[in-house]
Amino acid sequence: MFKRWTIRQRILITFLAIVLTGGVLQLIIAGRQLQLATLEFYQHHLETDGLMLASTLSESLEHYLDGEGTESLQRLLGNLQQDTNHNYLIIDHNYRVVGYTAGSGYESIDRVPPTPELAAAAGGQIGADIRAGYDGEEYLFVAVPVMYERETRGYLVLSRPMQPAYTEIYQQWLELGSTTLPVIILVIIAGLWLSSTISRPVQQLRNSALKMAKGELDTRIESDAQDEVGQLARTFNYMAEQIEHLLKTQRSFVSNAAHELRTPLMTLKLRVEALQDETLPAAERAAYLAELREEIDHMAGLVSSLLVLARIDEGRHRQNSTVTDTTSALHDIARHWRIEARDAGLDFEAEIPADLPELPLAPNDLRLVLDNLLGNAIKYTPQGKIYFIVEQKPGELLMQVGDSGVGFHPTQAEQLFTRFYRADEARVQFEGNGLGLSIVQSILDQYGGSVNAQSAGLGQGAIFTLRIPVVAEMVTP
Ligand SMILES: Nc1ncnc2c1ncn2[C@@H]1O[C@H](COP(=O)(O)OP(=O)(O)O)[C@@H](O)[C@H]1O
Ligand SMILES: [Mg+2]
Question: Is the pTM for the entire model greater than 0.90?
């Protein structure tokens, strides 16, 4: 059930539930204390009045009971009536009525019943009781013994209606309640605010994700919050950036590939059209055919490079085989390129140590990587020398492919590995598609290896350094 609620609703309801139960409990406790205090005060007030009056009464009552007339008692009763607004009743110790406030219901009563407050007073205490009075309303009755010379001669019963006390208590409850109301309103506002600070950014996140899904890749969330939600927003932005970058590269990759294929295709078309002319001299025909072949080779190379990259991108390229006899594998490769170098009129120097450890990459990949680098070295070196140096380092094999060729601007060192990137100088003078180095890097990436390029500048030659982690050697006992 809770799953159906929004975060906002959950926060609000939790907030309200806590505050309301807490508030109501407090209200009840405070209210009851107040109510008790009010009632006690009400009763206490009547009791002190009763005690005071009882002491002033004692002599007059004694005289009256001794049959010395009612004069002084009458006077006192008259005063009583004026001073207080309580009802009073005076009885002797046999509960026979002696005097009372006119109209308080004792006109036809000679002797009063032993009510609870009288029972307590008979025991020498101050008795109190709340019950319906003669008129059906609730009254508080307080009974005090009237003593003369340490003897109980009678009782004074004071009573007053409870209504004023109840009104006061009701008023107090009302006041308490009305102070709670603003607190509850404040809590609701705070809850709304809190929930919206959480749910608004989440909502934003959702909207941004939807926008991205619809193709608006530059969508970002603006948030400078340092809390969890802010972190989430920043992570989202980072993800969006990565995706945007990835898609951009992917798109430019496709358009670059199409572009690279279009130029040779145009050449092919033109040459084929020319060849359709039957009057074309044999020499030109042979030249065009040679050109056709070259373009087709170029396109085939491009297509196979694209296929390798596509396989790497899809994660289908990596194989689990290893180069077991590394030394001889490297010698094979060097042998091949020594011949190529010689054919190009270049010196070739190779240093390959014996007993090299096993390498954790497929033999084909090792060949592909080195063919690319050595092929580049020969291609970009019109004259001079090529060298290929292998060194065993702790945990890795270091290989350097260097040349004394055209080199490149040191600032371009990293860009060279970007797909389709070719330095301007290379573009003008040398054939190529700009995919070789990116293939080298992608392959090494897969095996935890790395490659970097160095050149002191144009015309200063270039050095490509490879690092390939070696297979951890088994410890033989
Ligand atoms: N040995 C090198 N000397 C100078 N520049 C090089 C060398 N190898 C690569 N480069 C530069 O790096 C670019 C990318 O190389 P690569 O990806 O192999 O593409 P391609 O060889 O088809 O041009 C080249 O166009 C060239 O500018
Ligand atoms: Mg190349």
Answer: no
